[in-house]
């Protein structure tokens, strides 16, 4: 973090000139930052998945750590569910490929779980910096538990950040993917606690005429003129 009180740098500068390096945080609805990275499956580019798959990019603080190990087991066991949704999982931490490979092998040998997705080796924090995964108040050397949801057009659609001490809920990550895909396919919104099979929300009226038409709607799915539910 820049401690030069005369410096005018901010999150939008790549180099403030004071010796510290800054990256703009990724923003929802904009293209996810492109990267080329070494992984346990060889070199990959984010654009390799363009027009083909959704991507869930997630970071973890370090290899051979207890919470991260439970997460890798959970992600691996849920991998078929991600495949059903046409989602590519990509892991990342600020560790080397050799460390990743040794840890993955240990998980398979000790816990009986095969890790099927690539894990980025990000020793120079290049990808972690692009995505704001390094949170200095938590750690200046380890990535937090961030999750980025990127659609097939390469647009960042959602992101979740967790502290180092809190393991992620894989069911919630799958739920977010389900909701985003329903949003896109049916042009609807999803209410709080929504899960597949629940009612969805019809977009609210945008004009006075649409509002007047909505007021004519009757039935238990109409809560008020701006909140109308329906089954898919």
TrEMBL record:
User: Which reaction equations make up its catalytic activity?
Assistant: a hydroperoxide + [thioredoxin]-dithiol = an alcohol + [thioredoxin]-disulfide + H2O
Domain Thioredoxin, residue spans: 26-182
Top-level EC class as recorded in UniProt: oxidoreductase
UniProt GO MF annotations: thioredoxin-dependent peroxiredoxin activity
Q: Give the domain of life.
A: Archaea
Q: Which residues cross the membrane?
A: none
* SUPFAM superfamilies recorded: Thioredoxin-like
Q: Which compartments is it annotated to reside in?
A: Cytoplasm
Alphabetical keyword list: Antioxidant, Cytoplasm, Disulfide bond, Oxidoreductase, Peroxidase, Redox-active center
The positions flagged as active site in the entry are 68
Q: What are the EC numbers?
A: 1.11.1.24
Location, primary (coarse class): cytoplasm
InterPro entries found in the cross-reference section: AhpC/TSA, Peroxiredoxin, Peroxiredoxin_AhpC-typ, Peroxiredoxin_C, Peroxiredoxin_TDXH, PRX_1cys, Thioredoxin-like_sf, Thioredoxin_domain
Q: Where along this sequence does the record place binding of substrate?
A: 145
Per the record, the similarity remark reads: Belongs to the peroxiredoxin family. AhpC/Prx1 subfamily. Belongs to the peroxiredoxin family. Prx6 subfamily.
**HAMAP family with a match to the protein in the record:** Peroxiredoxin
Oligomeric form and interacting partners: Homodecamer. Pentamer of dimers that assemble into a ring structure.
Other facts = The active site is a conserved redox-active cysteine residue, the peroxidatic cysteine (C(P)), which makes the nucleophilic attack on the peroxide substrate. The peroxide oxidizes the C(P)-SH to cysteine sulfenic acid (C(P)-SOH), which then reacts with another cysteine residue, the resolving cysteine (C(R)), to form a disulfide bridge. The disulfide is subsequently reduced by an appropriate electron donor to complete the catalytic cycle. In this 1-Cys peroxiredoxin, no C(R) is present and C(P) instead forms a disulfide with a cysteine from another protein or with a small thiol molecule.
What's this chain's function? Answer: Thiol-specific peroxidase that catalyzes the reduction of hydrogen peroxide and organic hydroperoxides to water and alcohols, respectively. Plays a role in cell protection against oxidative stress by detoxifying peroxides.
Per its record, how is this protein called by name? Answer: Peroxiredoxin
Which organism was this protein described from? Methanocorpusculum vombati
């Amino acid at each position: 973090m820049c401690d030069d009180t005369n410096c005018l740098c901010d999150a939008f500068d790549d180099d403030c000139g004071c010796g510290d390096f800054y990256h703009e945080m990724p923003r929802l609805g904009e293209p996810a930052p492109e990267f080329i990275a070494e992984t346990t499956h060889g070199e990959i580019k984010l654009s390799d998945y363009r027009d083909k798959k959704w991507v869930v990019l997630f970071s973890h603080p370090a290899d051979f750590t207890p919470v991260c190990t439970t997460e890798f087991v959970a992600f691996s066991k849920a991998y078929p569910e991600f495949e059903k949704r046409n989602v590519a999982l990509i892991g990342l931490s600020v560790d080397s490929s050799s460390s990743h490979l040794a840890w993955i092998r240990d998980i398979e040998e000790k816990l009986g779980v095969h890790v099927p997705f690539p894990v980025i080796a990000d020793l120079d924090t290049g990808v972690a910096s692009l995505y704001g995964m390094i949170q200095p108040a938590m750690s200046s050397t380890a990535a937090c538990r961030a999750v980025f949801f990127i659609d097939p057009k390469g647009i960042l659609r959602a992101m979740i950040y967790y502290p180092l001490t809190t393991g992620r809920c894989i069911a919630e990550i799958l739920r977010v993917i389900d909701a985003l895909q329903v949003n896109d396919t049916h042009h609807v919104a999803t209410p709080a606690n929504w899960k597949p099979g629940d009612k969805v929300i019809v977009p609210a009226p945008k004009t006075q005429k649409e509002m007047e038409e909505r007021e004519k709607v009757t039935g238990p799915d109409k809560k008020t003129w701006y909140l109308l539910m329906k089954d898919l």
